[in-house]
Amino acid sequence: MAAVEANLAGIRLRNPFLLASGIWGESGESLRGAYEAGAGGVVTKSIGAVPRDGYPNPTVETFESWGMLNAMGLPNPGIVEYPQEVARARAAGVPVIGSVFAGDADGFADVGRRMESTGVLALELNLSCPHAKGLGSEVGSDPGEVERVVRAVVRAVKIPVLAKLTPNTADVVALGLAAERGGAAGVSAINTLRAMSIDVTLRRPVLANGLGGLSGAAVKPVGLAVVWQLFDALTVPIVGIGGIRTVDDSIAYALAGARAVEVGTAVAFGGVGVFGELSRGLPGRLDELGFRSWEDAVGAAHAGRSRPTSSVPS
Amino acid sequence: MAAVEANLAGIRLRNPFLLASGIWGESGESLRGAYEAGAGGVVTKSIGAVPRDGYPNPTVETFESWGMLNAMGLPNPGIVEYPQEVARARAAGVPVIGSVFAGDADGFADVGRRMESTGVLALELNLSCPHAKGLGSEVGSDPGEVERVVRAVVRAVKIPVLAKLTPNTADVVALGLAAERGGAAGVSAINTLRAMSIDVTLRRPVLANGLGGLSGAAVKPVGLAVVWQLFDALTVPIVGIGGIRTVDDSIAYALAGARAVEVGTAVAFGGVGVFGELSRGLPGRLDELGFRSWEDAVGAAHAGRSRPTSSVPS
Amino acid sequence: MRQIVRVTERVQETPSTVTLRFDHAGAAAPGQFVMLWLPGDDELPMSLSWVGDRKGVTVKAMGDTSRRILDIPVGTRLGVRGPYGTKFDLSRQRVLLVGGGSGTAVLAPAAEAALAQGAHVTAALGATTANELLFEDRLRSAGAKIAVATDDGTVGHHGFVTELADRLLHEATFDVVWTCGPEKMMRKVADSGRSVGAPVVFSVERHMKCALGMCDACSLGPFHVCVDGPVFPAEQIARLDEFGRFKRDPSGRLVAA
Amino acid sequence: MRQIVRVTERVQETPSTVTLRFDHAGAAAPGQFVMLWLPGDDELPMSLSWVGDRKGVTVKAMGDTSRRILDIPVGTRLGVRGPYGTKFDLSRQRVLLVGGGSGTAVLAPAAEAALAQGAHVTAALGATTANELLFEDRLRSAGAKIAVATDDGTVGHHGFVTELADRLLHEATFDVVWTCGPEKMMRKVADSGRSVGAPVVFSVERHMKCALGMCDACSLGPFHVCVDGPVFPAEQIARLDEFGRFKRDPSGRLVAA
Ligand SMILES: Cc1cc2nc3c(=O)[nH]c(=O)nc-3n(C[C@H](O)[C@H](O)[C@H](O)COP(=O)(O)OP(=O)(O)OC[C@H]3O[C@@H](n4cnc5c(N)ncnc54)[C@H](O)[C@@H]3O)c2cc1C
Ligand SMILES: Cc1cc2nc3c(=O)[nH]c(=O)nc-3n(C[C@H](O)[C@H](O)[C@H](O)COP(=O)(O)OP(=O)(O)OC[C@H]3O[C@@H](n4cnc5c(N)ncnc54)[C@H](O)[C@@H]3O)c2cc1C
Ligand SMILES: Cc1cc2nc3c(=O)[nH]c(=O)nc-3n(C[C@H](O)[C@H](O)[C@H](O)COP(=O)(O)O)c2cc1C
Ligand SMILES: Cc1cc2nc3c(=O)[nH]c(=O)nc-3n(C[C@H](O)[C@H](O)[C@H](O)COP(=O)(O)O)c2cc1C
Ligand code: FES
Ligand code: FES
User: Fold this and answer.
1) In the CATH hierarchy, which top-level class contains the domain D2-84?
2) Which chain C residues are closer than 8 Å to A76 by Cβ?
3) pLDDT per position as a tens digit, C79-129
4) Is B129 a catalytic site residue?
5) Using one digit for the tens of pLDDT, what is the confidence trace for C28-40?
6) Cβ B269 vs Cβ B245: under 8 Å
7) In the 8-state DSSP scheme, what is residue B302?
8) Predicted confidence (pLDDT) at residue A129 exceeds the cutoff of 90
9) Topology adopted by domain D94-256
10) Collapsing DSSP states into helix, strand and coil, what is residue C117?
């Protein structure tokens, strides 16, 4: 049977399936539940310096089974109280990656350092969250800011730092290169796509925040394109995210260049049991497809073919 | 019954449903067919200075009924031969908007002028096409370039000029404002989202070009968010595009701020009869929802509520 | 997935509690809840106090939003997602209900369904004062035996409904106890049930956002109340440290219940 | 929607023509085509020369891609989209086939299906030379009467298959004529059919990209061959200016056919 261990910037995972940030990530028992269901590891909810309630409801909208729109507004208990949740997950042996956000480089460094002290194996910087006052969406979409933030955190901590990139950009490669220059040990992509739903009967946006983020199957083609482009340009490992629900979805991400993947919305549509399906199904499917291991599949769609132009047609 | 006429930058349309560029747009008889099926008007395939074969097949991939990926590669007969197609459509009384593309401002002005002389009612500049050599994706995602191109075309022609914007950007409002400064009579949005599909059995991208563009239902939430943001910032009219298939989809775009809409992928999934369904269904549905007219619905979701932040959550 | 409905009827059940009825065709079973959206305002989880195609929710004034819901007139449009969550097992023959305050809202349709299937239902209803008792008449006319308790003694047992429930459990044999109300109350009911060997089933409330088992807002130990609950066997829940002691606030912090 | 199949059999039908068989479960009817993708290379429309679960396409060397398809070994993986397009109406009793070159590929399964339903089928087959005649044996053993024509006279009528067809149409009565081949050939068949009052049905080829009725690559007058065709009643098509005179190249330009 094909080996499915993944090595992400030095972190060894029993399988490449990580719980995506923001799903089941507020409580330590949920993190543990995802791991026990079969995940190789978990990424916490994005944690900030102080508690945040997030936006009022409605915070979610689903589109059949192909899409999910959310504007949670980064609710989180804050870095002062969150360590007890990490501790609970770690006590159960769960490999935890700590997701953090802040309004500027110093803020990221500060929360990142405090997250490090909880014993997480790595940090994931949510550089795709744009409502911190004074910085706005520039944090995540300005390569200069990305580099500055990553560098500040890398200097402040000893564990590997992953930069989570936004797909809401003209040039995700520039963002990835900036993260790499800043010292990121890897990049994660994608976060949600800026999107919205309007109720025609009520003549108003559905989400309390108006704008939200699209996730689920609908964004898989977008995530694949992002990972593909990043793989061609970067040397650090890539964590693929967006619309993964089946083993084949995850292998498509591996072929595009992802060394591990995160799974989010599929938990809402199919329950946390999706991690069991994925982890049980992966070895046999890799065998069928002729791969000796997960690692063997990483980037394999790039081999031996003339690289496509990075142009968008139509 | 509610009135459904639309007024787009001075162009009067019998209904707000336009055939989107790139669908049924290479031949005059197809343009006419879309109009006869019920469209209020048509946008031509994007036409360049010289004939282009486009990319080799495979050029399309469908995702169930929620999404379509394509990399046609802008096949078009070129502006020298295309006038005969416009002539055929105009002879049948079809309101035609001419879509054009080029590699730089001068090129746009040149093709635009020649398109104007075919008798089209307006131009739509495809600023979301990034494979013209030497300029790349900067044409559409750099506000400075957008303004320059629009200005050059506006100076070269007398008919209204619409700028078609890309959703592959961090800040679509900056692009819209640039188009407005350049003198655009309106903006169209969205074009497709950069995306990709990988076949795990074959270990390769499906489209010959590797990267392609996502359209269909999956991009409707993205298109609505773009139109919503543009409506808040611009004064020129907006043509809403992306995933429109039902009357309610079109009304959602109107509520977000679209004065007319274009329909593309729905033709592949449901046939050109979709224009009949839309145009027949609109008046009654507007009545049901309490609108006196289509115009009455334009922007109506913005009224009376505190505008949502333009932040992307999660 | 969200349906827009219109309030077709508004019933003032008690000074602090109102039932809103609306047409909604989704299949629903007693125990389940909907996410009820007051457009322009919040969206809250609400148990269905009426299942079937003419559904209803029964809302008690607690905080700002529920207070505003109380004031909306017939004809108001509401958004409805769901029904979501687990159901009461209606196959038991001898059922004891223990309802505290608005907790009775979710028990009433379960009692009616059980009675319609021939079960014997006894309802122990608690409230602060006599005119806050919920669905006493509704349950009586459906055929339930009623016992009431009020904090101020204006009617029935002067004291907690848990005391009443404990007495009933020791006087007669029940196949199951369904309870909904404050968590400390439900924990006491669980203790009484255990002492006489009667299985107890809770209907639990937690802060909810997605109701899809995704956002973790409603987590309670290893469970997510929105999908694993709200109806739980007491033994799954009562032993959790958190239960009756902590809940999570909207930020996800554990705060005193 | 795209299935990856493996070539299970390769039959050299003529020096320039090869049949590839593969397992594919999609429902298909005679007349329909698939988009056949040679990974790493182009994707081309190909009529199904075998319908059923063990499908087949019969490819003639025309340009670069078809030439490469001819050379692929058994075991090669291909992408298959479809089946797409319109079908032959198999209810007619007396059928005349007129096939030019690889055009016979799409007529063979239609003939077999009609024969299986008890129809009488006569096949007029044309080719440049004797050993380029396609599916002569296959059609004969299915029960069709065969007449052949070769450009060089190596076998059968020395000349065009259209002459043969015209003679057959004047000798006997046919309920329908099915024809596939060069457009000029099909137009002549339509003329013959009209002169004797026999309805003629074309199978038309046009450059294709999407095969979804979207991209306009295959437009022919008001029709899109990929969804309105490829099987058309001759009267819809033969009168179009374009037919037999122009086709659209990959850029969409009208060029001489
Ligand atoms: C599955 C489920 C079903 C529910 N069914 C019903 C129902 O049928 N009828 C009903 O009236 N409510 C029900 N609720 C509770 C309801 O969702 C709200 O929490 C409640 O209406 C208060 O909302 P608010 O925004 O007005 O108050 P908030 O502003 O959130 O809170 C105001 C005050 O009320 C207190 N409070 C809030 N919720 C509760 C609670 N559940 N129990 C005790 N105190 C509380 C808070 O601590 C605070 O002091 C249900 C909740 C869940 C999770
Ligand atoms: C619905 C449909 C069904 C088809 N079924 C079959 C089939 O069963 N078997 C089969 O072999 N082909 C079939 N074709 C034609 C096939 O799709 C290709 O066009 C053909 O194989 C040539 O492709 P190429 O890329 O090799 O040639 P190209 O490089 O496209 O062309 C090379 C040369 O061949 C000529 N040529 C290309 N296509 C044709 C044509 N259709 N007729 C005459 N000359 C042509 C060109 O003019 C050029 O000179 C079908 C086409 C359609 C639209
Ligand atoms: C409800 C919800 C909450 C999310 N919260 C966060 C978050 O706090 N931090 C973050 O980096 N990403 C967050 N995301 C984005 C996901 O981690 C992921 O990048 C995205 O949803 C795409 O993956 P998916 O399609 O598998 O869900 C959230 C997504 C959802 C649906
Ligand atoms: C096959 C195809 C070809 C397209 N070609 C063009 C084009 O030439 N010029 C252009 O501006 N947009 C082109 N588009 C984009 C559409 O006009 C439209 O912006 C997009 O598909 C979203 O709308 P939809 O979801 O209704 O298809 C094309 C889209 C498709 C699917
Ligand atoms: S409310 Fe989101 S997980 Fe239960
Ligand atoms: S091949 Fe695209 S419309 Fe027919």
Assistant:
1) mainly beta
2) 251-252
3) 999 999 999 999 989 999 999 989 999 999 999 999 999 999 999 999 999
4) yes
5) 999 999 999 999 9
6) yes
7) G
8) no
9) Rossmann fold (3.40.50)
10) coil
